[in-house]
Fold:
Amino acid sequence: MKKVIVIGGGIAGLAAAYRIQREISAGAPLECSLLEGGDQFGGKIATERSDGFVIERGPDSFISQKPAAIRLCEQLGIADHLVGTNPETPSTYVYTGGRLVTMPDGLSLMIPTKFLPFALTPLFSLSGKIRMAFDLLIPKKVDENDESLASFVRRRMGEEALRKMAEPMLAGIYASDPETMSIGSTFPMFVETERKYRSLILGMLARKKAMLLNANKRPANNYSLFMTLKDGLGEMVEAVIKKSPDIQFESGARVESISGKEGDWCVNLEGGGEHKADALILATPGHITARLLQPVAPNAAETLKRIKYVSTAAVTLAYKKEGFSHALDGFGFVVPKCEGRSILACTWTSSKFPHRAPEGYVMLRCYLGGALQEDIAEKDEQTLATLVRQDLKEIMGIEEEPVFCKVFHNRKSNVQYHVNHSRHIDSIMKDLENFPGLFLAGSAYRGIGIPDCIQNGNQSAESAIQFLTGKS
Structure:
């Protein structure tokens, strides 16, 4: 029997453990333990269920365009629990100039693909629209060096597109500063589109046409762009543990250090105790992985230390539906930093996803902090609740007393992909080739989304399986 230890019980570590479970079920001579330092598994994925409300502490959905999360749900037998966004309220808003303005139809992330809605939208000034249209004429970038999101958007679409769209929408996904975040590591689709089509607008139109043609050839599915699970994303975590009977899951097992070499690894726990293993998968946040790697692979550890994390917070509020002062006729809104608000965005959860609030109630979720306003996310719960309620009053006119207001801190939990991030990751992975049997997984490397982490966990598990069994 060969032993694999997975350190870290976030979704990447869980995906790795489940991939190993499937190999064990197929007869592979493997053993596996997953060690989680905290009290719960799932990492940033954490669902509270109370009185008919489904409340997410961390992410509330994942994108369907990357198939790893949907595939995992299918393997776990919970695909019938997948739910998409509400097709009856698809509008999203931008808070600008003291009011909520609908994003124009045909806007693909930040790129217009329909002329009339773009021409008529009050979201952008006339000069801003003309500058965005210049994308049709601007030559493509000749070198392949990485650049920041801000640099890329300014070059292609102009300053107004950066401030009103890219910064609140794209940088908001990563809770990052657009001046430092890597376009190549966060939105490689844009880089590839420019390289292939020169113009982002022409490229998006071509991609849209190709997607329509492919959709006609493929069997139809009911997947919207954003998907979740009926009883919250915590279902995925619970199902992995339930469907992995041969994996030993240990919570409260905080790892002090690792030592050893190829085929002979030792994991030492805080407070005493140790585990022996033939292979290790480190699925911990970058700064923890760096600490564990320091005595074993110091070069990789030093590079990992360059990867920064920032704090965010989420505030969820519920209200009685009767007499509620807003129609909630959409998915929510984003807030450009130049508007001077505390909140970055607000999801109208009960409108966006079904089954999130019981009959007769509505629920909203606000996001704060990130690289540009990290100090706000560090404030105490009462202060955050007050700031959010003040913003909602001034933006949406909500003065009602909430049924509840839950504040969740996610301190130093959002990884930052700075310019040249992929080059640093390449050097880490190259250095680890000198340490057979040692593998990395998680959001610090090749993608922060749930599908990215699941895919990354699967790949790390498959590398470990191949190392131990010779099976590819």
